[in-house]
Design brief:
Layout lengths: L2 H10 L7 H20 L3 H8 L4 H28 L2 H18 L6 H29 L2 H32 L2 H23 L17 H7 L1 H31 L6 H21 L5 H25 L4 H33 L5 H28 L3 H23 L10
Helix pairs in contact: 1-11, 2-7, 2-8, 4-6, 4-14, 5-6, 5-8, 6-7, 6-14, 7-8, 7-11, 10-12, 10-13, 10-14, 10-15, 11-13, 12-13, 12-15, 13-14, 14-15
């Protein structure tokens, strides 16, 4: 095997995708993410230039979609505890297919907002369902490696899709944008068909239909709720990368604006290459605590580099921005793996869906609120905003390490 081949196998953990069902899940995730990578860069252009909506309306619709996904996440958790997560994932794919087939019909806010809400709700449910599917397919030792491998595959596919979207942006016609929308719909069909062929989760434990105290049991698990809140702090780092870095680089440093695209490419490459190797630290609950700690330190270093980037000349700015993005990416890798491990480790049988949904609430909130928070507080506060975010992440890392250590004897829960 060539060096490139060995690097590829190590980076995506391909030795974990050893049988047909696991490979089909990986292929479905790749195709699904490829479609998403095609659509996301042209989304606003499609709705404004092709569907005739104004930018404010698109922003309103996306905000409503984010709020709806957060509001419906607890219900999704109950559904996942009641039914086979494989079927929930197929249903999510089917709903998203219908939404994207309907998007070309959008010409008013009254049609746009409900469709975006359905899109965001099904997307959020699919994330938790996919995690539960993996938890049912893989043993305790392979579970986090498999999730890490899927994350690397998905990031690679999104990156490729982003490149493909460039053609539609250059052509800038309704036909080009419709082709992207329909391609995304097809990607969900492929994903649904592949997931439908997976074997039923033989380890899935259904929650009792009369157990009305199930939600209260999650809310009484204070240690878990604290970890879910701390996890949201690390998610702010993702928003800082997506929104804060471009704004900071172009308005506060002397680095060339063209560097932004290269920094995003660097982020994608590092996740593809390092997610599996670094993410394996979080295989146990105690390991997840260490991963959170490392994530906090890496995020603090990254934020400090952005501050230094604004204080030097062009060469210093470029170097500091690169090191800062490396820091934020490593923080993302560690916190992502820990975020998968903690709810799986602490959830009792029949409650995985609810526990995952609690973590998903933070993710959903930061998806629509994170960019505004980063823009107003981090970037708007000059250097103190970056330092504040970095210190908050470091403190969250120490706290999460302590909380995970007190229950480090608990394995990542089996089915």
């Amino acid at each position: 095997m060539t060096g490139v081949g060995r690097l590829w196998r190590a980076s995506i953990g391909s030795d974990v995708f050893t049988d047909g069902p696991r490979r089909r899940l990986a292929i479905g995730s790749f195709v699904d993410s490829l479609g998403s990578g095609l659509f996301l860069p042209v989304m606003v252009l499609f709705f404004t230039r092709s569907a005739g909506l104004d930018v404010a309306t698109v922003g309103l619709g996306l905000t409503c979609g984010g709020i709806a996904s957060v509001a419906m996440t607890p219900l999704a958790g109950r559904v996942l505890d009641r039914y086979d997560p494989r079927l929930v994932l197929v249903a999510s794919y089917a709903l998203r297919t219908a939404v994207y087939l309907a998007y070309p019909l959008v010409h008013s806010v009254g049609v746009f907002v409900p469709l975006v809400c359905l899109d965001r709700i099904s997307s959020q449910a699919a994330r938790s369902a996919r995690t539960m599917v993996v938890a049912g397919m893989a043993g305790e030792e392979d579970r986090i490696r498999m999730l890490s491998g899927l994350n690397a595959i998905r990031n690679l596919a999104v990156g490729i899709g982003n490149l493909g979207a460039t053609a539609a942006i250059v052509v800038d016609s309704r036909a080009a944008y419709l082709a992207v929308v329909w391609a995304n719909a097809v990607s969900y069909v492929v994903g649904a068909l592949l997931v439908r062929t997976l074997p039923a989760d033989g380890h899935h434990v259904e929650a009792g239909t009369s157990d009305r105290g199930a939600d209260r049991r999650v809310l009484r698990d204070r240690r878990f709720l604290l970890l879910a809140a701390l996890n949201a702090v690390f998610l702010a780092g993702n928003s800082a990368l997506l929104v804060g870095v471009p704004v900071w680089l172009t308005t506060r440093t002397s680095a060339p604006a063209a560097l932004v695209g290269l920094l995003f490419a660097l982020n994608t490459v590092l996740i593809v290459l390092l997610q599996v190797g670094l993410g394996r630290m979080a295989r146990t609950l105690g390991g997840a605590g260490r991963a959170y700690l490392f994530s906090g330190v890496a995020l603090l270093v990254g934020c400090a580099m952005f501050v230094l980037a604004a204080a030097g000349g062009t060469a210093v700015a470029v170097l500091c921005m690169v090191v800062g993005v490396v820091g934020l990416t490593i923080a993302e890798i560690f916190s992502s793996a820990a975020g998968w491990s903690v709810p799986l480790a602490l959830a009792p049988d029949g409650r995985r869906g609810r526990y995952l949904s609690v973590f998903a609430i933070g993710e959903g909130f930061m998806t629509f609120a994170g960019p505004a928070v980063v823009t107003l507080i981090v970037v708007g506060s000059e250097w103190s905003g970056w330092i504040g975010l970095g210190v908050a992440a470091a403190v969250a890392g120490v706290a999460a390490r302590s909380l995970c250590r007190t229950r480090a004897t608990a394995p990542v829960a089996g089915g």
